[in-house]
Amino acid sequence: MQAVILAGGEGKRLRPLTHNRPKVLIPLANKPIIGHVIQSLIQAGIRDIIIVVGYRQEQVIKYISSLPLDIQVVFQDRPLGTAHALSFARELIKGNFLVLPGDNYIDEDSVRAIMNTQPDAMLTKEHSDPSNFGVVTIHNGMITHIVEKPASADRLSVSCGIYHFRRDVIHSITKKTLTEEITALIDQKREIKAIEATNWQDAIYPWGLITLNTTLLSGIQPRKGGTISSSVIIEGPVIIGSGSRIGPFTHITGPVIIGDNTDIGSHCSIGPGVSIGMRTTIDPYTSIQTSLIMNDCHIGSRSHLSSAVIGDGCTLHSAVIVSPLSGSLIIDEGPKITSFGAIIGDSVFCGPDVTIQNSIIGTSATIEGERTNVRSRIIPDKGLVI
């Protein structure tokens, strides 16, 4: 069985986190999203993998090259849709094959379920916010209708964007998106089976990464490297990378992942639901829960972070508070009711004694001044708050 992973998209709705990286390379539980997809394929017994790249393709290729796998890569020259992307793998397809998005999480059991089903088939799942996906109508186990991102939906079943196709499909692609291709197949009276996914998740907006990161952390296997002070208390599943140092009287409650060469100061409280990348420094007396912190960050002393995503190379000075708050943000499609702490892009500088709630901070932005409050705001890239 072959699998084609579509990894050419940008992930615009996850800005600012996709300003410097494609969505497929956003780290969840310290592994890029596409890495989790590849892992599920391998666990299900699929090793013949083709990846279609596009946006920031050199970054995706660099990551793929670091894996101990023989993966074929093809290039989508323009971002014209999922079916258009799939068509670039045409010459490499030998028989029936799977198609998967590289920026959604899918578990091994779901991969097995669809690969062991006769084509043509689609993975589906009920979702609380179906209007962000292809909403499907199912009758007697078959897909009878699919509508992409309707303004309102009268059902909860959506397409996971994961398909098992016969080889002839890739030679007859005429549409830009796979939703359009599926509709054309249905119009031709071709049966498309609906297979219920066990565990499929997609982060449509950046705050969805917090939930997805927590989900993926739940399956980690404990592993401890580096230097850990004898007075450190560790509870639950925790991974500590090589070269990392954990200071005295720090308390870590899993699930938590701490990357290589990261320093956690004394009297800190870390977890649960926290992933911290490589070469990051957490100063003493800091508390972090339910958050995703990427590489090369510095979090100052006496800070408290909860429900946050922090990009590469950020500096948060002392006594910075990030905590969840319910509110409304104006996203491209209109107002969204949200509840999280902060989404902070790469290379952000935040001065001391700042409070951030329910806000998105753009790449290379600066928040200056003491006792500054940023609540339910979107700060643009390179923005300045004083």
* Uncertain residue ranges: none
Determine the CATH topology of the largest domain: Spore Coat Polysaccharide Biosynthesis Protein SpsA, Chain A
CATH level 4 superfamily of the largest domain:
Spore Coat Polysaccharide Biosynthesis Protein SpsA, Chain A
What's the architecture of the largest domain in CATH terms?
A: Alpha-Beta Complex
* N-to-C CA distance: 56 Å
Helix content: 10-25%
Number of helices: 6
Shape designation? globular
The mean pLDDT is: 93
Radius of gyration: 22 Å
Description:
By secondary structure, the chain is mainly β. It folds into two domains: 2-204, Spore Coat Polysaccharide Biosynthesis Protein SpsA, Chain A, CATH 3.90.550.10; 216-385, 3 Solenoid (UDP N-Acetylglucosamine Acyltransferase, domain 1), CATH 2.160.10.10. The protein contains six helices and 39 strands. It has a 15-stranded parallel sheet that branches. A nine-stranded parallel sheet has the order 15-18-21-24-26-28-33-36-39, with no helix packed on it. A seven-stranded mixed sheet has the order 5-4-1-6-11-8-12. Helix 1 (33-43) packs across helix 4. The radius of gyration is 22 Å and the shape is globular. The termini are far apart. The model has no long low-confidence stretch (mean pLDDT 93).
Quick structural gist:
The protein is mainly beta and 386 residues long. It is built from six helices and 39 strands. Helix 1 (33-43) packs across helix 4 (108-115).
State the main characteristics:
386 residues, mainly beta, Spore Coat Polysaccharide Biosynthesis Protein SpsA, Chain A, UDP N-Acetylglucosamine Acyltransferase, domain 1, 2 domains, 15-stranded parallel beta sheet, 9-stranded parallel beta sheet, globular
